[in-house]
Amino acid sequence: MKDSRESYGTLSKSLHWLMAVLIGWQFLKFGDRVADGEHWVGETLVPWHVSIGTLLLALIVLRMIWAFSQRGQRPQHEDPQGRLVKIGHGLLYAAMLLLPVTGILILLGGGYGLNVFGMQLIEKGDKIAWASTIGGIHSTLAWALAALVIGHIGMALFHQHVKGDGTLSRMV
């Protein structure tokens, strides 16, 4: 279950891949702009966007706590690019944390409240201008996360297949 210098543990791998699938699902929201969401993606998957986003918020907080508790035991990136790896992962974690927070701020800013998997977590209320303003960066953050994910996948494949250092194998 715990991480080691050679490989990530079961919990780290499970959180990584569960979040990867859910973030991929969230990226379907980009396609919602096609024909105003009047297609199977817009009608079946996108309505879950807020609920999945809120679930991702809980998962990233759990993942950050777990990563912090495992920080001395995880595989290290000690090559010259190790600093870039840490920066890249830091940006990924920041985007994964800030995206659902700004999404919730959009809802609260618009006075909509927060309904997650059919449960009303925050009641509808008055519009909140500052929340709406901060929530305005949500879309930009989504595009930034998409770019970071593409870079993350690209670098994992590069390290596995070009450098042959087993990077991808440690997370599979």
TrEMBL record:
The annotated topology with respect to the bilayer is:
Multi-pass membrane protein
Q: Where are the transmembrane segments?
A: 7-28, 48-69, 90-108, 128-150
Q: Is this entry keyworded Electron transport? A: yes
Give the primary localization class: membrane
* Cofactors named for this entry: heme b
Q: Which GO terms describe its biological process?
A: respiratory electron transport chain
What InterPro entries does the annotation carry?
Cyt_b561_bac/Ni-Hgenase (IPR011577), Cytochrome_b561_oxidase (IPR052168), Di-haem_cyt_TM (IPR016174)
GO terms for cellular component: plasma membrane
Q: Does the keyword Glycoprotein apply?
A: no
- Domain Cytochrome b561 bacterial/Ni-hydrogenase: start-end pairs: 8-172
Organism domain of life? Bacteria
MF terms (GO), sorted A to Z: electron transfer activity; heme binding; metal ion binding
> Which cellular compartments is it found in?
Cell membrane
Q: Which UniProt keywords apply?
A: Cell membrane, Electron transport, Heme, Iron, Membrane, Metal-binding, Transmembrane, Transmembrane helix, Transport
**Hey, which family's this protein in?**
Belongs to the cytochrome b561 family.
Q: What is this protein called?
A: Cytochrome b
What is the species of this protein?
A: Marinobacter flavimaris
